[in-house]
Write a structure and sequence with these properties.
The structure holds two protein chains of two kinds. Chain A has eight helices and no strands. Chain A is mainly α. The termini of chain A are far apart. Chain B has nine helices and twelve strands. Helices cover about 35% and strands about 25% of the residues of chain B. Chain B has a domain of about 70 residues. Chain B is of the alpha/beta class. Chain B has a six-stranded mixed β-sheet, sandwiched between helices. A four-stranded antiparallel β-sheet of chain B has the order 2-1-4-5, covered by helices on one side. In chain B, strands 6-7 form a two-stranded antiparallel sheet. In chain B, helix 3 crosses helix 4 and helix 4 crosses helix 5. The chains are: A mainly alpha, B alpha/beta. At the A-B interface, helix 5 and helix 6 of A face strand 8, helix 3 and helix 5 of B.
Chain lengths: ~210, ~260
């Protein structure tokens, strides 16, 4: 196992990290929109949101990625693999994050919403200023968990031609005949990244708690 | 005789099959403290929540400063829901204080008090915070402005909640059992703030179990039982003997809770 091989793995790790973080962020925005649709209680928003969540939770991510990668060119959208990868991961994590948030929204005490109501807030103001921030605080540990799950699931994006850590490790293993040190290194890199996410998440959770619990 | 602050006419509230309020007729005088008392389940909190439009009445009408709240009902009982903007405008005349304080946990005391000024009234941040500080000073908590609700005692939280309602400059303050969630030693500070407010001439409607407070600060006492308003009048009249047997029975349960002076 040479330094050169390890450097190649680290470069691939940056790709894994970049794709995952961007997808989690986009997924979070979509999840909030889905939550707004569900919380509105109006079936014209609610039903499509429910359908979206059921679909992206119910179909394997691998199939979603292959579908997006093959479907988009057919309908005239030619996208590089990295875009297909981010789209697939974002939509998938959005569905899971929306489900996590749903529990958070259900746990926002009714009285806090009534207090906004009597103060003259409209539905959107109450959502943005009261319900969403409180729901996010209540579900933050689940969000960190989801970030870790997505980082690991990102190994699947190799099917749309992205050379991320796992794919790089496979390629290097087959060309160098040193599978064990290479896969061990890949495992170590995943472990270090996810530990860092867990640690940062823990800090963020604590500072949120200091401001609310 | 001035226009009453609130007029309640033939108000009925049903939850499904259960009638919670039956034909309530009541006028709340302006600039006075009006206390709603009665046993648990008598409907007094529901009545107050109807005044805040947190509950929508089933029939009957409420007017605030002469303007219909939520629904307009003509003499034949034909009912019409008013436009949302009008409902909002009438609701803005009232401020509400809850039993459980309901402060927003992710905002400081100052944030709680200034939030609606910024978001709803579109007051610039600096001015909103200055006005919020004025209200916090009024309830004696200017030095707790940067504290989150979790860092405040129950009594302090309720005072912040009062400041939050006052910041929007309501004409009428509604209090829903404001001291029921507090330890006995903390109720005093909240009742004192309410006494100051009453002394300034604020119109107040107070649902309370503090019979002592009702007797000493209240200028109109209304007694509800099983969803009906049994009677309403000045405390001297209500608490004078001989009393209505139902009120006598109710007061008996409060003799050791600050109402012994009425025995």
């Amino acid at each position: 196992m040479t330094l050169k091989l390890f450097t190649l793995l680290l470069e691939a790790a940056l790709k894994t990290l970049g794709i995952s973080l961007v997808s989690i962020a986009i997924g979070f925005v979509i999840a909030m929109l889905l939550s707004a649709a569900i919380q509105s209680g109006k079936s014209i928003y609610l039903l499509p949101a429910r359908l979206f969540i059921s679909f992206f939770r119910g179909v394997p991510l691998l199939v979603q990625l292959l579908l997006i990668y093959t479907l988009l060119p057919v309908i005239g959208i030619n996208v590089p693999g990295i875009v297909a990868a981010i789209v697939g991961l974002s939509l998938c994590t959005a569905a899971y994050q929306a489900e996590n948030l749903r529990g958070g929204f259900a746990s926002v005490p009714r009285g806090l919403v009534e207090a906004a109501d009597v103060a003259g807030f409209n539905g959107i103001q109450t959502f943005l200023r009261i319900r969403a921030p409180i729901a996010l605080r209540l579900t933050f540990p689940a969000l960190v968990n989801e970030a870790i799950m997505i980082l690991k699931a990102s190994s699947l994006v190799s099917v749309v031609g992205i050379i991320e850590i796992t794919k790089m490790a496979q390629d290097l293993a087959s060309s160098t005949y040193m599978p064990i040190p290479i896969f061990a290194s890949a495992a170590l890199i995943y472990f270090v990244i996810n530990s860092a996410i867990a640690l940062l998440g823990g800090y963020a959770e604590k500072s949120l708690k200091g401001a609310s619990a | 005789m001035s226009v009453p602050a609130i007029t309640i006419r033939k108000l009925v509230k049903r939850f499904g099959e259960t009638t919670v309020l039956q034909d309530i007729d009541l006028e709340i005088p302006e600039g006075k403290v009006s206390c709603l008392i009665g046993p648990s389940g008598s409907g007094k909190s529901t009545l107050l929540r109807c005044l805040a439009f947190l509950e929508e009445s089933t029939s009957g009408m409420i007017t605030i400063n002469g303007e219909a709240l939520g629904f307009f009902e003509d003499a034949n009982g034909k009912r019409e829901r008013l436009p949302a903007a009008q409902i909002r405008a009438v609701r803005a005349k009232t401020g509400m204080v809850f039993q459980q304080f309901n402060l927003w946990p992710h905002m400081t005391a100052l944030g709680n008090v200034s939030e609606a000024l910024k978001i709803v009234r579109k007051v610039p941040k600096a001015e909103a915070e200055e006005r919020a500080m004025t209200q916090l000073r009024k309830v004696g908590l200017e030095n707790r402005a940067g504290h989150y609700p979790s860092q405040l005692s129950g009594g302090q939280q309720q005072r912040v909640a009062i400041a939050r309602a006052l910041a929007l400059e309501p004409k009428i303050m509604l209090f829903d059992e404001p001291t029921s969630a507090l330890d006995p030693e903390l109720t005093g500070e909240v009742l004192n703030v309410m006494r100051d407010l009453a002394a300034e001439g604020m119109t107040m409607v107070v649902v309370t179990h503090e019979i002592g407070f009702a007797a000493s600060v209240g200028q109109q006492i209304s007694f509800l039982d099983h969803g009906r308003l049994l009677f309403s009048g000045p405390p001297a009249e209500i608490f004078a003997k001989p009393r209505h047997p139902r009120l006598e029975q109710f007061l008996d349960t409060y003799l050791d809770r600050g109402a012994s002076m009425l025995a």
